[in-house]
Design goal:
Elements lengths: L1 E3 L19 E3 L2 E3 L5 E6 L6 E7 L2 H20 L2 H17 L1 H12 L3 H19 L1 H5 L2 E6 L2 E9 L2 E5 L7 H12 L3 E5 L6 H12 L7 E3 L4 H9 L5 E5 L2 H13 L3 E5 L4 E5 L5 H13 L9 E7 L3 H12 L13 H16 L3 E4 L4 E3 L11 E6 L4 H4 L6 E7 L2 H9 L6 E5 L3 H10 L4 E4 L19 E2 L6 H8 E9 L11
Parallel strand pairs: 1-16, 8-9, 8-11, 9-10, 11-12, 13-14, 13-19, 14-18, 17-18, 19-20
Antiparallel strand pairs: 2-3, 4-5, 6-7, 7-22, 12-21, 15-17
This protein binds nicotinamide-adenine-dinucleotide (NAD).
The site of nicotinamide-adenine-dinucleotide has 28 residues, from helix 8 and helix 9.
């Protein structure tokens, strides 16, 4: 049993706040759910209750959709150059409140203050992208025959919905809110019921930035409200981020109701380390990738494929992992259930012959004994058939799989059901090129442990890490949140007429 004594107030938001009941936000007002069902919101840093959240039902969703429908005609008719003014102002508000927002993210999610701050900074970058929408939207126009022109415009869809997971309470909602709204849609956000408080601040700050009431609404809840969103006849598109199991349910249900849907799922990201990899850079990057946000990132390296003789590299990675200290530079996992699930994966791997080199089980942080902490864990001699090699663990755990050569390493990566990210650490351009070509993943890293594309490049995986055509951010999201209107115009009565005009 490890007791870590390094906690300081600067590392995590350790002085937890008690927040009022987390209500829905409909037509510019915070309102309790009509269903009267509520749930406790628990900070995983200490295990304390910090708020309660409304678990909404059909009547709450109906009210939010009505508010969004009422706001839609005026909002969608506003020129995009006017709509983005809200987001220019919103960006400065995010910058003003950066540290307060980070503290809240750390409190409700359990990540460190540094990680929470980086999360809010990413929300700012996503907002900046939406501010450039007028430049990105300038359309196509061509004189197609004498006196006749065709043009294409991106038109909004109407009322849309965004469903978010627990691991980025502030950033993931910003994958969808700024772009969908700047493009003229009105939105219902359904945050994770485990981390709903950040969305209160999002709503308050959008209102302060001048967003008209009803354009953005928050409906809290669990399975019941997600199913109601998928079934609602007046919601045109559903964006989902969460586990693969639920992504499949949502994608099937939303599309069977003839809605557009992009559903991002879970991940098992492989990081291939070649014998020529730079030792220090590789060791620090691998350790940071597997442990950042306590391993609760869909872009975390959770399986390392070590090619050739790698004992020294593995030993360096273990040294780096030991520098990662729970309560200092490693936050908590989201819940008691998550801690138990992660520790069970480690024990099962050990039971089937893998070797636990750095063991994060039974981790307790002094003064925070009721928090949910798992220490950094490195497991060697994992084989591709083991559950820890195939399934998403979502904790600070690195499974090392040994491979003879690059072909075998790529084969292991290709066999995964998932396909969010794959990285290679090497000094060889030829090897890097092969991984770029042959890895079956949507986001590739060359000597990068967490290959999240920065704006304006879009975010989205392959295989069972994403269902639907578009990526969730960047230019690809413009296609998702809009439909094309094609207009053919002729004013000149003297033009000759043929079947083309
Ligand atoms: P989750 O699937 O449990 O929950 C996601 C959302 O679905 C939540 O809003 C939740 O209320 C709702 N939900 C839960 N159970 C439901 C059900 N039975 N029916 C309908 N809706 C339901 O995911 P999570 O635990 O909150 O988040 C972690 C998961 O999200 C991980 O698998 C992670 O990889 C994934 N994730 C993926 C990406 C990506 O970009 N691919 C990004 C972030 C997180």
């Amino acid at each position: 049993c490890f007791i870590f004594k390094h906690l300081t107030n600067f590392d995590m938001a350790t002085l937890t706040t008690r927040y009022p009941e987390t209500k829905n936000y409909i037509a510019g007002k915070f309102v309790s759910g009509q269903s009267l069902r509520t749930m406790d919101v628990i900070t995983p840093l200490t295990g304390e209750v910090i708020s309660t959240v409304t678990l909404s039902g059909q009547a709450d969703l109906d009210a939010a959709v009505e508010a969004a429908k009422a706001a839609y005609p005026a909002w969608s008719a506003m020129p995009v150059k006017e709509r983005v003014q809200v987001f220019f102002r919103y960006k400065t508000l995010l910058e003003r409140d950066l540290m307060d927002l980070a503290r809240l993210v750390s409190e409700e999610n359990g990540k460190t203050m540094d990680e929470a701050r980086a999360e809010v900074e990413k929300s700012i970058e996503l907002t900046e992208f939406a501010c450039s929408m007028p430049q990105l939207l300038s359309g196509e126009l061509l004189e197609v025959s004498k006196g006749v022109e065709c043009r294409i415009e991106h038109k909004p869809l109407g009322v849309v919905a965004s469903i978010a997971p627990f691991n980025f309470p502030h950033m993931v909602p910003h994958w969808t809110i700024p772009n969908a709204l700047a493009l003229g849609n009105c939105m219902i956000l359904k945050p994770s019921e485990q981390v709903p408080v950040s969305s209160v601040r999002i709503a308050e700050m959008l209102k302060e930035a001048g967003l008209p009431d009803g354009v953005f609404n928050v409906v809290n809840g669990d399975r019941e409200i997600v199913e109601a969103i998928c079934d609602h006849p007046d919601i045109q598109a559903v964006s989902f981020v969460g586990s693969t199991k639920i992504a499949k349910v949502v994608y099937r249900r939303a599309t069977s109701n003839l809605k557009r849907c992009t559903a991002l799922g879970g991940a098992k990201n492989h990081l291939i380390v070649m014998p020529d990899a730079h030792p220090e850079m590789t060791a620090t990057n691998v350790a940071a990738s597997m442990s950042g946000c306590a391993g609760q990132r869909c872009m975390a390296a959770s399986a390392m494929v070590a090619v050739g003789q790698m004992d020294e590299m593995v030993s360096k990675i273990c040294d780096e992992a030991r520098k990662i200290v729970p309560g200092k530079n490693l936050g908590s996992v989201i819940s008691k259930a998550a801690k138990e699930r992660i520790e069970k994966y480690i024990t099962e791997a050990e039971n089937v012959g893998a070797k636990v080199l750095v063991d994060g089980r039974n981790c307790v942080v002094e003064g925070f004994e009721s928090g949910y902490y798992v220490g950094p864990t490195v497991i060697d001699y994992v084989t591709p058939d083991m559950a820890i090699a195939r399934e998403e663990v979502f904790g600070p755990v690195l499974a090392i799989i040994r491979a003879k050569n690059l072909d075998e390493a790529i084969h292991i990566e290709n066999n995964s059901n998932y396909g969010n990210a794959a990285s290679v650490f090497t000094q060889s351009g030829g090897v890097a090129r092969q991984v770029m070509e042959r890895a079956s993943a949507g986001m590739i890293g060359i000597n990068v442990g967490v290959p999240v594309p920065r704006e304006p490049f879009s975010f989205g995986g392959w295989n069972e890490s994403k269902f639907g055509v578009n990526d969730i951010t960047g230019k690809s999201s413009i296609e998702f949140w809009t439909q094309l209107k094609k207009t053919t115009v002729k004013w000149n009565p003297e033009s000759r007429t043929n079947w083309m005009s």
